[in-house]
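Supplementary Methods. Inverse-folding protocol.

Structures were first reduced to a discrete structure-token string of length 118. This string, shown here, constituted the complete conditioning input.
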């Protein structure tokens, strides 16, 4: 089992920045990929970014490319999502998720709310 806990959400003005963290615990050696998804109120969940557990391969979704960065702190088993140049349309609950190598995302955190005011 893997446990994931997000932190760092909050209220920020448009153009501002936030750093979200996802702390992994449990059987972390079995993790292949950690991803971030977001879900605006009343809309479907959307892929944001993912990184392999080694931290050397990252992918960022087209809708946030150039503004968001994903990284991994290997010493702390934590994956960070840096959100820059935030827009009101980035308002959503952001979820951290983990998958085994070549597997589907099966572990999910509780989510952290990001609200961007105009």
């Amino acid at each position: 089992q893997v446990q994931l806990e997000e932190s760092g959400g909050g209220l920020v003005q448009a153009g501002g920045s936030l750093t979200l963290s996802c702390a992994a615990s449990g059987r972390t050696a079995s993790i292949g990929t950690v991803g971030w998804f977001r879900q605006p109120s009343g809309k479907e969940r959307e892929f944001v970014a993912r990184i392999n557990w080694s931290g050397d391969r990252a992918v960022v979704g087209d809708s946030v490319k150039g503004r968001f960065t994903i990284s991994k702190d290997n010493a702390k088993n934590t994956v960070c999502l840096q959100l820059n140049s935030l827009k009101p349309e980035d308002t959503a609950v952001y979820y951290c998720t983990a998958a085994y190598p070549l597997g589907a995302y099966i572990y999910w955190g509780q989510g952290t709310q990001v609200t961007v005011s105009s």
